[in-house]
Amino acid sequence: MTPNNKVPQTYCLRCGTCCKKGGPALHHEDRVLFDQGLLSWAQVYTLRRGEMVRDLDDRLVPLDQEIIKIKGRDRAWTCLFYEDAHKKCRIYPSRPVECAALKCWDPRPLREAMKRPYLKRLDLLGRNSPLAQVVRAHEGRCSYQAIEGVVKHLESPDACKAANHILELVSYDDFVRSFVIKRLNMDSGATDFLFGRALRVTIRTFGLQVKQEGDTLFLAPRPSHRLDLPRSGRQAGKTSQRGTKTGH
Ligand code: SF4
Q1: With 90 as the cut, is the pLDDT of residue 48 above it?
Q2: Distance 82 CA to ligand 1 centre (A)
Q3: Could you tell me if the CB of 47 is within 6 A of ligand 1?
Q4: Whole-model pTM?
């Protein structure tokens, strides 16, 4: 019993809070979900190395390696596979490693699971495939380390050149996405897996925003409200102290 005489929770209440906070990051063991056709490239997105995310403690941190996550739905973080009507996961028997480890009453198994090797884009694309080469070329030009280097020059006498360079990268990022959709007949949803979240969106983590008038792009400071950023992995909902055992 807890000090306030409540029974400690030791099982899932199926409240759905955890799944509504966002889908899991994927690890090597989760590759089987793609092999079995339970997951497609269009259902996941990549957070690239150096991208700003919120960690499990809600701190804003740059990722030290790329991770692939299951997408949200309805313009929210709620996992694509969470079914509100029945409060259940549509792939529960095959759910990813982080989901199997998550216990909202005990953070330790999830923290252990997050130490396992993450699945990478090249694991799924094949290291020498033509698409892997396109992904490498994009990363070589648009890495967050490279962008950070250019952003620093916005405060220097070279500010105009730096702003143009950033806009060139945003245009290149747009171009690569439309190229693979049109030329390779790729599902448009797969571009967030191949190239990560669009630079037009993530540039906001540098305090900037891209505006467009006709075909012309402009850089401007972004409004200073809190950014709604993805999390580096699954996050538990608040621990409930009592409930009826139902299983998931
Ligand atoms: S895969 Fe299933 S268990 Fe995991 S976050 Fe999505 S709905 Fe929840």
Answers
A1: yes
A2: 6
A3: no
A4: 0.89
